[in-house]
Please model this.
Amino acid sequence: MLYHVFKWLFYLTIRGYFRSIYIKGSDQIPGSGPVMFVANHNSAFMDPILLAVHLRRPLYFLARGESFKYGLTSWIFNRFHMIPIYRPEITPDKVYKNEAVFQSCFNHLRAEKSIMIFPEGVSKTERRLRKIKTGAARIALGAESQNGFQLNLKIIPIGINYSNPHYFRSHVFINIGAPIQVSDFEAVYHENEKQAVLQLTGQIKKRLEDLVVIVKNERLDALTRQIELLYDSQLSDRKETDDKAVQKFLVSREIVKAVAYNLKTRPRETLAFEIKLNAYLKSLERLKLRDKTIGSMKMRLRFWSDLLYFILGFPVFLFGYVFNIVPYKVSEILSRRITVRKDFVGSMKIAFGMFVFLVFYCIETVLIAVYIHTIYALVFLFMLYPTGLFTLNYIKSFYLYKEKIRYYQLNLNHNKLIEKLKRKRRELLYELEIGNTLYAQSLKEKL
Model:
């Protein structure tokens, strides 16, 4: 009961936190039968919350055993479908309990339930896949072994690709891969159990690598993100949001590979390009413009229609702003005041946001029910969340509108400056194409 209540509350919170959430591959998830989900782990408990509210099957999670040491937290975590797992490097005195934990997982899978595991073991906010631990493979093969390899257990790999999990109104792409049939490893398991575990772990690693963008170092990541800005404006011209999310993922993967190749084979040229790109982006920052504004082929100022939207939408904006600004600011202050690990920042924002908004919504509704009328209070309650989302979009639209006006003013009064920026952008894209062509040729030569 508690799981389903919080699943609904977190669904609303997640939908408000992220600007866009796109899920590819939902059809890979079977409607019944035992399933083990495995995913990369970038953002503490935001990852399990994100998946729990969007996957149509109830999930049971393996969580760090040290979180269960207090009676109250243990009771709460159990209600949230969490199963403790003890790691030798953290709780060596509790490792003996893992045998019972594994058996609990076997029982869950035998009952055709779903288990969620993050096989990296720890979370860290970086576009990288850390070493995959063998626990997921051991549980999967152990469950099948106890059932004569007739369980029909499937492992579903999931790649979580955040634009930045700690930024409010950012984007996330959930990439669900094809299932791994655990019974395919039966022969190897009977011959050599350890080898079967290693082979299945290797398969999990390979599948996850195909579903996420992997960047090997910080410099490569920084340069890749800057280049992604240049390509993003071209993808933004697409109308199909779903297609755009997939294309953005594929483009990012190719950019990482091409940049890594050019850093290795053309270090001087790549450094010169990096300097030019930084100068271009700093120029945009000074002018308070985005690359999308300079590069978009479809950008046009719809003065009267946009103005009409702002006029007609203002009462809704004002209502949403007045009754949402206080909990928003309180959540923001609380998340800043509490010092946590970097990978917990977004998770704390989500948690504080849900509880603070829930408290404020209840207080506001009760006050209206007491001093005005119960019916008005219910109508008011149901208006709070959608008008809050409208307010966020209204504010974004307003700032984009201001940017467009600024661009047209600069283009009118300082046309040479805008043309110079456009020329720099074309030069950067041309150099990118050269680097990409050289990378593509190197791939052909390997064939």
About this structure: Residues 178 and 309 are 44 Å apart (CA to CA).
